[in-house]
Amino acid sequence: MSPTKVIALPVLGRHAVNAYLLLGRHPIIVDAGTPGSGRLIHRHVAAHGVDPMDVRLIVITHGHIDHFGSAAELSRLTGAPIAAHIADLGAYRAGRAGQPYLPTGLFGRLFARTSKARETAEPFEPDVLIRGETHLSDFGVEARIMPTPGHTAGSVSVLTDNGDLVAGDLVATPLLGFVKGRPANPPFHDDRLGNLASLREMLALGPTKLHVGHGAPLDPGRVGRWAAAEQRRLDRLAARGRLRTNETAVA
User: Fold this and answer.
1) pLDDT tens across 161-209, in order?
2) Contact yes or no for 218/204 (Cβ under 8 A)
3) Helix or strand or coil: residue 84?
4) What per-residue confidence (pLDDT) applies to 126?
């Protein structure tokens, strides 16, 4: 059995926003980009020699519209069902993020003030509701959907049997992919400590490469060193009462 191949599908710029094509016995797509990018992703899939109508599943990693914005459109174009975690179901049904955006740094604070932060997408109802670890072999790919909550409550990653981790916004690179190779937080997290715990759990599984929603692939060793330093930083913030989550923000 040949290993699963992971191909980045650029949605915005070269790496600013990525979807992914996973090739096994049958293809699946991970993430659906921003609103209005369904046809672009469709063309990218065809450009890699894959008939888009052969796509067996569209996996959405979490309920932010730069990841699910074209899910409904892409499902219509390919005929593929959509899989998404039940904890972010409210966002998918509403067509917008289910929680206020909590910035992780300056870029997030600036972005939160723009109209893009209030953009909406076409709602959808997932055909496959993820509640826990879910194997994808029935859809033609030797991989598992792994719940990785923290960025949002319903965030998931996809781990292939040969070690590629398609990680959504579990980690990113600075400035939405403009700085290659360096791990960083994405602009927002609902729960930074919870997300970091999920990231460290995935690293403990020994992935060979991390494919992220914003940026070029990351080396697990470098991500692990960054995660250890980030843990120390967040622990200091938490000790001073300066670490908000969406639960504390709305309490």
Assistant:
1) 999 999 999 999 987 666 778 999 999 999 999 999 999 999 999 999 9
2) no
3) strand
4) 98
Q: Residue 229, SS3?
A: helix
3-state secondary structure of 72: helix
Q: In this structure, are residues 162 and 26 in contact, taking their beta carbons and an 8 Å threshold?
A: no
| 115: exposed, middle or buried (Cβ count in 10 Å: 0-12, 13-18, 19+) | exposed
CA distance 85 to 60: 8
CB 213 within 8 Å of CB 168: yes
User: How many other CB atoms are there within 10 angstroms of residue 228's CB atom?
Assistant: 13
219/224 Cα distance (integer angstroms)? 9
Gap between the Cα atoms of 168 and 166, Å rounded: 6
- The structure's pTM equals 0.95
Supply 135's token pair. Answer: 């194997």
Residue tagged 């992780």 (tokens): 104
User: Quick count: other Cβ atoms within 10 Å of Cβ 186?
Assistant: 24
Signed CA dihedral, 97, 125, 167, 247: sign only = positive
H/E segment holding residue 175: helix 174-177
How do residues 99-142 score in pLDDT, each as one tens digit? 888 999 888 898 888 887 789 999 999 999 999 999 999 999 99
DSSP letter at 172?
B
List the one residue out of 49, 132, 42 whose CA is nearest residue 79: 42
* Half-sphere exposure at residue 103, Cβ-oriented, CA atoms within 13 angstroms: 11
- State the pairing for strand pair 128-130/82-85: parallel
Q: What angle do CA 203, 224, 214 make, to 5 degrees?
A: 80
Whether 12 and 1 have beta carbons less than 8 Å apart is answered as no
